[in-house]
Design a protein that fits this description.
The chain is an alpha/beta fold. The chain has a single domain, classed as Rossmann fold (3-Layer(aba) Sandwich), CATH 3.40.50. Helices cover 44% and strands 19% of the residues. It has a 4-stranded parallel beta sheet, covered by helices on one side. Strands 1-2 form a two-stranded antiparallel sheet. Helix 5 links the parallel strand 5 and strand 6. Helix 2 packs across helix 3. The longest helix is centred in the N-terminal third of the chain and has 19 residues. It catalyses: tetracosanoate + ATP + CoA = tetracosanoyl-CoA + AMP + diphosphate; a very long-chain fatty acid + ATP + CoA = a very long-chain fatty acyl-CoA + AMP + diphosphate. Belongs to the ATP-dependent AMP-binding enzyme family. Keywords: Ligase.
């Protein structure tokens, strides 16, 4: 079977848990940190939202560590992740969501006020299920 990025990440997490994986501003996240956070995120997404293998989830997050552990969590669940440009608005955002065929959008709390989630950004109710990832 093919080796995935998740497989490679998990191998490194087992072999070098304390080794830095990501530096963001003044934070350092180790493989172990990211593995634990992604496990907690995967658990919450499955338990609270019923996500499972085959689900398509749009991710509308800025570049941050949360983006990485969200990606890992979705990969661990077997979900397809539709990566949305966090600067997209209006028709461009609507098009990206339609093309992804998703019914769930994971967004950062900061997007609440800037997206105009229902209406102004052109995102209608059927895809307006939004979950804040912290």
């Amino acid at each position: 079977p093919p080796v995935t990025l998740l497989d490679v990440f998990q191998l490194h997490a087992r072999r070098h848990p304390k080794k830095p994986l990501l530096r963001f501003q003044d934070e350092v996240h180790t493989y172990e940190d990211m593995d634990l956070r992604s496990n907690r995120t995967a658990w919450a997404l499955r338990r609270r939202l019923g996500l499972s293998s085959g689900s398509v989830v749009a991710v509308f997050l800025p570049n941050s560590p949360a983006y990485v552990w969200t990606w890992l969590a979705l990969a661990k669940l077997g979900c397809t992740m539709a990566c949305l440009n966090s600067n997209a608005r209006g028709r461009a955002l609507r098009h990206a969501l339609d093309a992804a065929g998703t019914t769930l959008v994971l967004s950062s709390p900061g997007e609440r006020g800037t997206v105009g989630w229902e209406g102004a950004a052109g995102v209608e109710g059927e895809v307006a299920t939004k979950v804040s990832v912290v």
